[in-house]
């Protein structure tokens, strides 16, 4: 391969260098733009996350002020918990996607920049070598022309020297051809690397676009707004339940007061009843004692009456016998 081949190789390397610089600038601009978009989206998501955390803490403080009351029912608490978990999960997924995309872009950009810088350094070295080779070839062609012009006036010694020098130059040309082949191989490998970098750029362009990220962000905001509306409805229900609970508490207080009054009356009644029962028991005991005394007296009276009756019968019998005896005596006297 001659001087024209070396110049073509030099032009190819130079063109490849220019293309790689343009591709690097465009790719760096695209990566920076995507990173700015992703950072803006991450900031928006962080702001939404801060709003949710602030809302949760404000709700916790409000619950601490009203710790003596149960504001939400089981279903409402479950709905609130599921809504907050869904929102936090969406935010965390979006943030992780954005951060992963930013890290991938940074790593890819760093890899591509490193590869391009390495390729540029190699191309610069090849350019220097090609320029040196071209200079040496031009010098050799100039010396050959000068030697041809003055060849007739030189002697045999000069011819021998020229033959040696020619052999040296041929060896040098052979070495330069080998170097040129190596340089062409390097240029082809650099061209392949540049095409691979372009392929990487095309693959990187398959990341979610700004429109898709914006749609995801809008959808997340809509979900947050719906969750806020649900929380507002839950707050309204909680206030209504608070009013109903206060009313029930007042009614329960009134019932407790009434029950306490009734309980006091019942205690007084039971106390009076027990006192009356004790008095009745004492009266019954006294009556039983008196009854026993009366029974005893009655028994004594009955016994005395029985004895008196027996004595009366005995006396009557004696009186009858005496009357009979008197009658007999009277009869005897009359006779």
Q: How is this fold's topology laid out?
A:
Layout: H1 3-65, H2 74-149, H3 156-204, H4 210-334
Helix pairs in contact: 1-2, 1-3, 1-4, 2-3, 2-4
Brief write-up:
This protein has 335 residues and is mostly helical. Helix content is 93%, strand content 0%. α2 runs antiparallel to α4 (210-334).
Description:
The protein is an all-alpha fold. The chain folds into two domains: 3-208; 240-335. Helices cover 93% and strands 0% of the residues. The longest helix has 125 residues, at 210-334. The protein is rod-shaped. The termini are far apart.
Measured between the Cα atoms of the first and last residue, the distance is: 219 Å
**Number of helical segments with 4 or more residues:** 4
Instruction: Give the amount of beta strand, in percent.
Output: under 5%
The stretches of 5 or more residues where confidence is low (pLDDT under 50) are: 5-19, 63-70
3D shape: rod-shaped
Secondary-structure element series: HHHH
**Which bin fits the share of residues in helices?**
over 70%
The overall number of domains is 2
Oligomer type: single chain
Mean pLDDT: 72
Radius of gyration: 65 Å
Got a strand count? 0
Structural class: mainly alpha
Largest sheet descriptor: none
């Amino acid at each position: 391969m001659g001087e024209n081949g070396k110049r073509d190789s030099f032009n190819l390397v130079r063109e490849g260098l220019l293309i790689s610089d343009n591709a690097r600038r465009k790719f760096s601009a695209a990566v920076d733009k995507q990173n700015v978009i992703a950072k803006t989206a991450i900031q928006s998501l962080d702001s939404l996350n801060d709003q949710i955390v602030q809302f949760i803490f404000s709700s916790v403080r409000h619950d601490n002020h009203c710790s003596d009351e149960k504001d939400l029912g089981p279903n409402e608490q479950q709905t609130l918990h599921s809504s907050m978990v869904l929102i936090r999960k969406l935010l965390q997924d979006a943030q992780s996607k954005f951060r992963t995309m930013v890290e991938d872009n940074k790593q890819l950009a760093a890899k591509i920049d490193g590869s391009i810088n390495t390729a540029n350094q190699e191309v610069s070295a090849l350019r220097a070598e090609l320029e040196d080779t071209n200079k040496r070839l031009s010098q050799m062609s100039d010396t050959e022309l000068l030697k041809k012009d003055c060849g007739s006036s030189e002697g045999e010694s000069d011819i021998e020297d020229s033959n040696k020098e020619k052999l040296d130059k041929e060896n040098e040309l052979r070495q330069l051809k080998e170097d040129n082949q190596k340089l062409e191989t390097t240029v082809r490998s650099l061209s392949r690397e540049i095409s691979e970098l372009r392929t990487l750029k095309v693959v990187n362009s398959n990341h979610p676009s700004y429109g898709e990220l914006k749609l995801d962000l809008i959808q997340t905001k809509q979900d947050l707004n719906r969750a806020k509306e649900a929380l507002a409805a839950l707050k309204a229900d909680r206030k209504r339940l608070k009013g109903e609970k206060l009313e029930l508490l007042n009614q329960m207080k009134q019932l407790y007061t009434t029950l306490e009054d009734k309980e006091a009356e019942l205690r007084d009644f039971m106390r009076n009843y027990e006192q009356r029962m004790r008095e009745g028991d004492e009266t019954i005991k006294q009556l039983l004692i008196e009854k026993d005394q009366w029974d005893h007296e009655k028994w004594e009276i009955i016994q005395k009456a029985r004895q008196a009756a027996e004595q009366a019968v005995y006396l009557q019998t004696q009186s009858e016998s005496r009357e009979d005896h008197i009658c007999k005596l009277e009869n005897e006297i009359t006779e």
